Amino acid sequence: MKQKGIDSFTDKRVWVIGASSGIGEACARALLLEGSRVALSSRRRDRLNAIAKNARTDQALVIPLDVTNQDQLTQGYETLLKTWGGLDVLLFVSGMYVPLRADSFLIGTAEQTIEANLLGPMRSVALVLPEMLKAHAGHIAIVGSVAGYSGLPKALAYGPSKAGIINFCETLYYDLLPQGVSVHMISPGFVATEATAQNDFEMPALITAKEAASEILEGIQNGEFDIHFPKRFSRFLKFLRVLPYPLYFWIVRRFVKI
Questions:
Q1: Which CA distances in Å does 35 have to 7, 26, 57, 225, 232?
Q2: pTM passes above 0.70
Q3: Using CA atoms in the order 164, 166, 172, 173, what is the torsion angle rounded to 10 degrees?
């Protein structure tokens, strides 16, 4: 049994949470070009308004919010429903990344990371699920990271938050496939964004946000659950995940020079 894809994004109602920069902005701009109706959410209203200016009249809906604030998320979804009457695709891209290692581990930063990267998507899914289940239709797409596959340097909080997303999406898929609601687990490698600009090491197979958006939208259209890219990098990390730990740690220490 294969989950549903999307024939065309034209006129589809898509809520992009995390639309103000990076992968989220690239996805939002691509969807607008495809003719989707796009609800744009993030904390930065000015950036959202700049994206909306390129849309047709009534094609873009600006809903500023913080994904760690339940009331703002709830009000945002209510605004969307009042305006468009429903939602076809939830695309959750928002997240935070702060490089952390054991010698600089900050529990406050770790808590903020989990709030944004794991509980944020969970809050959003909890909002949209009742209507999607009632309609036996809809798409839930969540951007995680290949950093969730297994432990990597400088990801002491970010990695666990993305590992949680993998488990969450896998369980969602199992539960929602019989209900007609599609789930898309999105695991990018290194993408040139404001977040990755913090890295002080060479990022293998680095791609642009526009390239990432193309991979994501194509995967959703095809009904793919496991959307990962760039393949030359993500497949290598998938392979590492199945190795015995001594060999895994040896390879990471040898090839990740940080």
A1: 13, 15, 12, 24, 31
A2: yes
A3: -170
The residue among 16, 195, 26 whose CA lies nearest residue 95 is: 195
Q: In which residue ranges of the chain is pLDDT below 70? A: 192-205, 256-258
Starting at the earlier edge strand, list the strands of the sheet with 89-92.
Answer: 60-62, 37-41, 13-17, 89-92, 139-143, 182-188, 226-229
Predicted pLDDT at 200:
56
Residue with tokens 């998320």: 73
Helix (H, G, I), strand (E, B) or coil at 98: coil
Asked whether the CA dihedral 165, 168, 170, 172 is positive or negative, the reply is negative
**Domain boundaries defined on the chain:** 13-255
Domain spanning 13-255, CATH architecture: 3-Layer(aba) Sandwich (3.40)
